[in-house]
Amino acid sequence: KVPTRNRLARGALHGWQVSGITRFVSGAPAAVSLGTVTGTDYTGTPSLSPRIWITDNPVLPKSERTFSRNFRTDVFRIPPLGTYGNSARTVVRGPGINNWDAALFKNFPLFSERTRLQFRWELYNAFNHTQFSAFDTSTRFDSQGNQINSRLSEFTTARTPRQMQFALRLTF
């Protein structure tokens, strides 16, 4: 507390509270799906869907990632006929979360000690940091085995931008 004899200054400077929550979360595992324009049955059975064929590690270093390129797309191929593919169920990680929520409160005493009015200002995604929530993981191959999905590995959705709310709370 700042000691002051001025009642107006004391009313303006005292009684403030700050609160916040910060989250840093790694992305969830994501699967890369197989799609073709030919509709070929690669497994030989209608009850089992094939997975993609992977020739190398699809993970890109963070320094090489861009809006349109979040993992290596050149490592995916159509599986050979009669196989299930060689990829794991999930081979890449989705975008993570870097979020800051904050709140600022000011208490104003009213008629008695037990009665007070609280001004609240709450910010969600306080720094308005763009946070993408998904990217395209659907491969599509033509009849020659060329990958034709130009948006593969590109961000597709984002989490909500900064939201603010103001409130008055009467406690008695």
How would you sum up this structure, described in words?
A four-stranded antiparallel sheet has the order 1-6-7-10, with no helix packed on it. A two-stranded antiparallel sheet has the order 2-5. The protein is 4% helix and 33% strand. The chain has one helix and ten strands; from the N terminus they run αββββββββββ. The chain has one helix at 7-13; strands at residues 16-25, 29-30, 53-54, 76-77, 92-93, 97-109, 116-124, 132-135, 155-158, 163-171. The protein is mainly beta and 172 residues long. The chain is rod-shaped.
Biggest sheet, strands in spatial order?
1-6-7-10
Helicity, as a percent range = under 10%
What's the number of extended β-strand segments? 10
Overall geometry comes to rod-shaped
Q: What structural class do helix, strand and pairing data support?
A: mainly beta
**Main sheet, how many strands, which sense, barrel?**
4 strands, antiparallel
Mean pLDDT figure:
91
Rg from alpha-carbon coordinates: 27 Å
Q: Kindly report the oligomeric state of this protein.
A: single chain
Strand content: 25-35%
The helix/strand series, from N terminus to C terminus, equals HEEEEEEEEEE
Q: Give the terminus-to-terminus CA distance.
A: 24 Å
Helix count equals 1
Poorly predicted spans: none
Task: Briefly summarize what is shown.
The protein is mostly beta strands and 172 residues long.
